[in-house]
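> forwarded from #structure-qc
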């Protein structure tokens, strides 16, 4: 059997962390040949040149596509997408993959999807069907879904939503959250090892803070984050580990605010641009809660029996476990949420939480589907799956 060339495109540290075990499994499968295109934040000194982490993990980076301009304004991000489309067109022409894999909803992936669509190159989309009403990632995610030909979702509700968007049920597979594979496969760090890695001795109370701009909200994201910092300032008994933002609109101001907070609170806080999956998940396991608006607080934290304070609307619409506390981006509300996090009634929930994103094994399920397909036979000319047809409704129930 000829090797089917599977091209994974990754533009950020967080997305690569979720893709790691899928890439490993593709690499190890007879009949599949892994190609890797890195772009976006991976190639930026400001964000740690994280393509090196991919190489240090033993992967060969097949192609680098520069696209990230030195600007986090709407104009700068829009221009980055344009540069990315051009670079991806050249990369796909050179590599000639049989299918590309895209995870999620970032603007770098919209550039890759656009270039693939025009080339008539099939796309396998991971983590589609989700909703994040506070960010323009929502529209990008659904747009990539409509450009894609295979879909691997994290819950059954998300699978149904992808079908609702007009994708045929036989192309949509519920495999669970990819991040849980990392939890199952990595040997997470002990507390002393984590403290050594992050440069902070943990205390009696510890919080992991990861906050990203809500790109569609009218409220200034820096104002929301200021309320978060005010609450953390008042909650002075807690040690704090910050992770900085991705290359998002208005991300730099949040990173600057983090640096200013740490400068004043050196004895109890530290900030990192990029932790990598091992350190990040180890921290997520050892802290009392993750505070902010990252998807990791919804998808991975429940599997580690860690509570989440989800601030604002960035993740509005996503499926959530009982250990997620939603709160408004106001200092008083965040302080109430912190009190709830440390309450006995909430701690009791941690003992019985069931993660709605599954128990792991997503990477193997995806590879099984890819191996069973003749990708060359995939029809890139799709038909819209119409839910108004009663016969088709019955077909959904039968699958």
């Amino acid at each position: 059997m000829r090797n089917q060339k599977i091209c994974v495109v990754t533009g950020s540290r967080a997305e690569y962390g979720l893709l790691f075990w899928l890439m490993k499994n593709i690499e190890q499968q007879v009949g599949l040949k892994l190609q890797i295109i890195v772009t976006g934040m991976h190639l930026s000194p400001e964000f740690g040149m994280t393509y090196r982490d991919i190489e240090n993990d033993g992967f060969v980076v097949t192609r680098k596509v520069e696209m990230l301009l030195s600007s986090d304004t709407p104009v700068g991000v829009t221009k980055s997408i344009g540069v990315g489309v051009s670079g991806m067109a050249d990369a796909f022409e050179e590599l000639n993959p049989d299918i590309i894999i895209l995870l999620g909803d970032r603007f770098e992936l919209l550039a890759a999807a656009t270039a693939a669509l025009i080339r008539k190159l099939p796309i396998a989309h991971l983590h589609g069907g989700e909703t994040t009403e506070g960010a323009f990632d929502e529209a990008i995610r659904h747009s990539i879904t409509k450009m894609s030909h295979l879909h691997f979702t994290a819950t059954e509700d998300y699978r149904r939503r992808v079908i609702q968007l007009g994708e045929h049920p036989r192309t949509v597979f519920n495999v669970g959250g990819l991040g849980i594979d990392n939890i199952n496969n990595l040997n997470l760090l002990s507390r002393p090892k984590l403290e050594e890695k992050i440069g902070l001795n943990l205390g009696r109370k510890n919080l992991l803070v990861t906050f990203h701009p809500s790109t569609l909200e009218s409220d200034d994201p820096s104002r929301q984050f200021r309320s978060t910092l005010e609450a953390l300032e008042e909650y002075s008994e807690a040690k704090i580990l910050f992770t900085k933002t991705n290359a998002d609109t208005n991300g730099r101001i949040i990173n600057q605010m983090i640096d200013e907070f740490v400068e004043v609170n050196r004895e109890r806080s530290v900030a990192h641009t990029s932790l990598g999956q091992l350190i990040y998940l180890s921290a997520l396991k050892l802290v009392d809660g993750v505070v902010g608006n990252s998807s990791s607080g919804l998808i991975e934290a429940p599997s580690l029996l860690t509570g989440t304070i989800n601030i604002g609307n960035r993740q509005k619409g996503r499926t959530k476990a009982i250990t997620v506390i939603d709160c408004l981006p106001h200092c008083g509300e965040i302080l109430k949420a912190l009190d709830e996090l440390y309450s006995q009634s909430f701690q009791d929930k941690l003992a019985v939480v069931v993660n709605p994103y599954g128990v792991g094994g997503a990477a193997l399920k995806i590879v099984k589907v890819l191996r069973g397909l003749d990708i060359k036979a995939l029809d890139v000319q799709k038909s819209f799956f119409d839910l108004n047809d009663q016969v088709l409704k019955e077909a959904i129930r039968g699958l």
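QC bot note: The mean pLDDT is 91. Residues 181 and 360 are 5 Å apart (CA to CA).
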